[in-house]
Amino acid sequence: MSNYILPEVWETPQQMGGAWGGLNQPTTGARFEQTLPKGDKPFQVYSLGTPNGIKVTIMLEELKELGLNADYDLFKIKISEGDQFGSDFVAINPNSKIPAMLDLSGEEPIRVFESPSILLYLADKFKAFIPEDFAKRTEVMNWLFWQTGAAPFLGGGFGHFFHYAPEKIEYAINRFAMEAKRQLDLLDKELATKHFITGDDYTIADIAIWSWYGRLAQDNIWDRAGIFLNVKEYKNLQRWTAEIAKRPAVVRGLAAEHKEIN
Questions:
Q1: Of 125, 111, 257, whose CA–CA distance to 204 is shortest?
Q2: Under DSSP, is residue 86 helix (H, G, I), strand (E, B) or coil?
Q3: 208 has a pLDDT exceeding 90
Q4: 260 DSSP assignment
Q5: What is the pLDDT of residue 133?
Q6: Residue 230: phi, psi to the nearest 5?
Q7: Domains and CATH numbers, the chain
Q8: What's the pLDDT score for residue 18?
Q9: In terms of Cα–Cα distance, which of 21, 204, 48 is closest to 130?
């Protein structure tokens, strides 16, 4: 039993603990001056190889696979060291989260932040991996926004309490493991009748969802989390995961090398 008593008004604790506790603050904005490098490619990506980060490299590699001019420079933002709070990064993404991207292909730079927004931006710009048909596009958007809303329960919920929290809290782990299993069951049932998540075609919805749930199905997020959640029981999810994992662009997207920023 916890001895914690709720105060009338919450105040920032002196020490949070855990893997990320020292970085957390209840305020936003730049914490230090920073000059991010820029390459000579059309797209400048500032990211890390996390589930959200790999969405962008996979998408760019898929576009390149089609012969489109989607070359990019990829720079490493070390979130554990606080690079995301530097002035240049905050200017691209005021929310201080990776990935963030600059499109330098036009007359003026365009900033794009939040991984689903980057996927949708690139899909619309290149007219690829998203249907033109309004009804089919809407179904892709349904699942893109599902991933956006669902993944925080998987990452910030289950992943945090299973892997990162300074102590194992049974209630929290059970609460979020239950939700993670519910999400996996949903995907497994959808994929029982469809080749990809929205039907016959591979889209940005598959890229977004695979980057979290496919990687979990491979047990490639958080040590032994896949075993803990018994991901092998989701046979349709496993089939879909394995097929996407073999795509050359996905292989390249996962292996993309991040350049140091300083």
A1: 125
A2: strand
A3: yes
A4: P
A5: 98
A6: 50, 55
A7: 134-250 (1.20.1050.10)
A8: 66
A9: 204
